[in-house]
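Researcher: Re-running this chain for the archive, since the previous output was lost when a drive failed. Same request as before.
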Amino acid sequence: MSSRDTDAPKPPLPPHQETLVPAESEPQPEPVGGIHSDVSTDAIADIASDPTNSTVVDSEVTTPANAVDSDDATQVDTTTDAEITAAIDADAAIQASATSIAKSETSPPTDAEEEEDEEEDEEEEVAKEDSPMTLRDHLRELRKRLFYCFIIIFLGFFACYHFSQYLFEFLMTPLVNSLPEGGKKLMYKAPAEAFLGYMRVAFVCSMFATSPLSFYQIWAFIAPGLHKEEKIYLLPLAFFSAFFFVAGAAFCYYLAFPFIFDFLMSFNSSMLESRPTVDDSLSFVLRLIVAFGCIFEMPLFAFFLARIGIVTAAWMRKVRRYAILASFIVAAILSPPEVTSMLLMAVPLMLLYEFSILVAAIFGKKSPPAEPEEDADTEDSAPA
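Model: Regenerated structure tokens:
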């Protein structure tokens, strides 16, 4: 090796290795017990004489070769410990929140919380009721109520069909009693005429038997347009609607039918003999029964219209003459084309109209009293 290579400057060491490698000019301490140390000879002698004295060793022994590495390791350990501690704290916070939520769900609510929940539910219901319904909402509500009515009548039909023969005989009794002796039977021409007649009887009887539930669905459809104080009449209206519907049918069966059939069967003679069929007789009877049941609903409609302020008793008295004319027109449309049934329907209609005037006068909406007007002339004539 040439002197030029020996004298060439060595490349500088990295900063973290400058303290690890001692300079060439500095003498390296001899290893003591296999460990490099800067401990002086006197200190070693002291240690040998007194092994328990570690003050000198603790104060004088250094490890410069591992000084930087130990600092870096300490810094890494410190950072790692901080991250672990933060993660542990986060897990503890999550567990604490989960425990609190579980306790809140499992623990029974207090009275104050229950009252708050009830108030919130009531406020939501009131807000939902007060919110206006769109046309689609009305159509959806109408479809739902009609579906309920169909299901109710359909179920009642199966129950009534089991007694259809007895119901048919009961409905035909006024007509059969008016027939002449020797001909007190009904005839049918088509093979399925009797069977279809039983089905029609079961259907109409199901309408009357389930009328409370059906009328409730009708009034429930109207209820969203009413005020809260007016909705309390929903159940009474459904009950009395069914009551008047059945009352009209009973009036027709027990009072109107005997007069109507006696009049119609009075035309039998030696040349004329009445032989009614099942189809024609049943259509006549069911049509009158349903018509009388409908016209007996007039007081209920008068009550409803008077409560919401559409009609008043004074207005109904004022248009009484037109109501009498309308009664005869309605009777002529609903009843068969003969005078007896029309009169037996028109007269109850006029009586029901008078009863409706009384209902409107009692239950109608009362108009607020007029405030007394101030006498302007008196004020002007008062002395200044």
